[in-house]
Amino acid sequence: MSMFSKSEILCPHCLRKLSLSGMKFFCVPDEDSRHEVRPSLIDKLKGRLPVCRRKFCRNRGLTIREAICRQCGESIPPQFLFHDKYLSFCAVGVSGAGKSSYMTTLLHELKYSGLPWVLQSMDVETTRRAQLNEQHVYEERHCLKGTAAGISPVPQMWTILDNSEQGDKIPTYALTIYDGAGEDCEHIDYTPLDAKISRYLSGAKMLLIMFDPLLLPSVRMEISNDILNASMATERQTSAPANMVGMVNSLANYIRRACNIPPGKRIDRRAAVVITKLDALTEMINGFASGATILKPSPHVQSRGFVESDSEMVDLEIRDWLTRQGETAFLSAIDANFRDVRVFGVSSFGRPPDAYKRLARVRPHRVLDPLMWLLAAEGIIPTI
Ligand SMILES: Nc1nc2c(ncn2[C@@H]2O[C@H](COP(=O)(O)OP(=O)(O)OP(=O)(O)O)[C@@H](O)[C@H]2O)c(=O)[nH]1
Ligand SMILES: [Mg+2]
Ligand SMILES: [Zn+2]
Ligand SMILES: [Zn+2]
Predict the structure, then answer these.
(1) pLDDT score recorded for residue 185
(2) Which of 331, 325, 328, 97 is nearest to 218 (CA)?
(3) Which pick of 90, 147, 170, 325 has the fewest CB atoms within 10 Å?
């Protein structure tokens, strides 16, 4: 018997609620005789996928898994219907903040970190995009190009098979990642690209607010031009330090509007504030102390759980560092808008690119930490 997932399902494309009646199922014995199959009343009651009953169809008697969302018309991968938990996160941050580089190393680490998980992509587009980014960073050893703006981000859809539990049933988690163009985030308040981005933001379980420390005037004064140029994306980024406070506020307003949350109330959404490009800060005199927790390797993966004390320490160290840089307004804006905030620090590459944007051997630092925080909150890994 095929059981539809028990957790609440949202369409990964339009993030509207999905039920059996909200999908159209197709039996495709071959392209010419593609036909719709409707779930019976019993299927609906039992949360079962429909079975083809058409006479002479080659698939007669088979469970039909090919589906599209009735509301947006996009196809829903079959694996998507059978997950035990749904994890989704959305990366936001100005252009060049390091979002796509981060996602690339995050996925790589997830695959090869030694965690008892198997990562599988759900659709061709996700595979294609991941392969392209992976090839760029890990084989050609080159920085990524900026994500194209002005088109709505396509969700990357993954399945995680959890091999850590004994027994017949392997828990599966659906993981969708939205990594849009920073340029679209920067103008989020004025030119709503389309209703889709706003739904991505309001529908995600966790927001990753990516903060590029190299935009801070105090940092730019202290680190060398070589490192600065190698670690910034575009001319535009180098010439225009973006206003993160403004972005946090407009992001918050956007979510409030989409979710109907009044201004005086904190947004009930997990927000991971991720400081990127940590490697570029090591030469700062006014940086992190040499024994700082943030500079140590992450303990979460090895402990197979989320080490709360480590994460709290890192949160504290970065807040303290930001305060010393005079960035209290950014911290206040985050704390005033989101109820559940945690600050993280990562380096996707482990060291700055060279003057030609070439990378040395990629050695990510603490990139899995924000995801481990979400996994712990969802009860998938223990908090220790
Ligand atoms: N030093 C250092 N530089 C980094 C790191 N990650 C990214 N960068 C630099 O930041 C630039 C932009 O990174 P992306 O990942 O493309 O940024 P993005 O946020 O996806 O940008 P958009 O797609 O334009 O929104 C890269 O070309 C690198 O120069 C890092 O871990 N360390
Ligand atoms: Mg990008
Ligand atoms: Zn949809
Ligand atoms: Zn059929």
Answers:
(1) 64
(2) 325
(3) 170
Mean pLDDT along residues 292-312: 95
pLDDT attached to residue 1: 39
What is the C-alpha separation between 221 and 217, in angstroms, rounded?
Answer: 6
Residues 100 and 140 in one domain: yes
pLDDT digits (tens, 9 = 90+) for 37-89: 999 999 888 888 899 999 999 999 999 989 999 998 999 888 788 788 888 88
List for the chain the helix, strand, coil content (%; round to 5).
40, 20, 40
Distance between CA atoms of 58 and 64, rounded to whole angstroms?
Answer: 12
How many Å lie between the centroid of ligand 4 and the Cα of residue 20? 18
Ligand with the closest atom to the CA of 184: 1
Q: For the chain, how many structural domains are there in total?
A: 2
Query: Does residue 231's CB lie within 6 angstroms of at least one atom of ligand 1?
Result: yes
Of 105, 109, 136, 143, best ligand 1 pocket probe by most atoms within 8 Å of the beta carbon:
143
Regarding the beta carbon of 99 and ligand 1, being less than 6 Å apart is answered yes
Q: Which atom of ligand 1 is nearest to the CA of 93?
A: 19
Contact indicator for 279, 366 with CB cutoff of 8 Å: no
Q: Which domain holds residue 194?
A: 83-377
Between 98-102, 179-183, 212-216, 344-348, the lowest mean confidence (pLDDT) is in: 179-183
Q: In this prediction, what percent of the chain has a pLDDT beyond 70?
A: 91
User: What's the mean pLDDT in 377-381?
Assistant: 90
pTM above 0.85, yes or no: yes
CATH number at 158 reads: 3.40.50.300
User: Do 30 and 97 fall into the same domain?
Assistant: no
Whether 276 and 245 map to the same domain: the answer is yes
Statement to judge: residues 97 and 149 lie in one domain = yes
Task: Say if residue 59 is in the same domain as residue 193.
Answer: no
Distance (angstroms) between ligand 2 centre and the Cα of 143 equals 11
Distance from C-alpha of 143 to C-alpha of 131, rounded to nearest angstrom: 14
Closest ligand (CA of 137): 1
List the one residue out of 154, 256, 150 whose CA is nearest residue 193.
Answer: 150
- Is residue 350 included in any domain, yes or no? yes
Classify residue 7: in a domain, yes or no.
no
- Position 384 in a domain: no
* Statement to judge: residues 244 and 328 lie in one domain: yes
